Amino acid sequence: MPPQPSTSEEAHLLARIAQQDESALSTLYDRYARVLYSLAFRILGSVEEAEEIVLDVFSQVWKLAGRYDPQRGRVDAWLFMLTRSRSLDRLRSLQRVSKVVESSTDAIKINPQSQISDPTEDVLISERRERVLAAMQRLPVEQREVIELAYYQGLTHVEIAAKTEKSLGTVKTRIRLGLNKLRQLLDALDWLE
Known about the structure:
The chain is mostly helical. The chain contains 8 helices and no strands.
């Protein structure tokens, strides 16, 4: 069994990461990625989600390494806490989405769309569609592309990453940024009316 790294050695790694030392981040990643992945997978039960959590945790370490205080706890405990927190947040988010989808599906079964079209509703839907399309045109091309692949073609994040030859993290970030920008654009359009 290899010797365990000392707490001061790991704190030194975080100090180097705070100075934007990529090799220090790589060393920390090599030490902990596997065990953090196991923890995330145990909570989420999904390979893709667990991988995403590990990437998120190390991204957060890169950003927050300068704030780490060795007096408040060990580095491994901090990493486990970050992983557990991120995993539970993601699990709650997935459960909320699942409930919304289930409720929507139940509502469709209870109130199937009538065959008779309501002209007022058709006009409102058409106007909303035009506003969304106009806002989509104002998004950066790379964000618009991944949103269209996800929402218009129904591709998963993994499929989009393969199709665009971008990393999964890049795809998810672009979708998240694009949806936030789209929401801002639509809110601005609502405010102008």
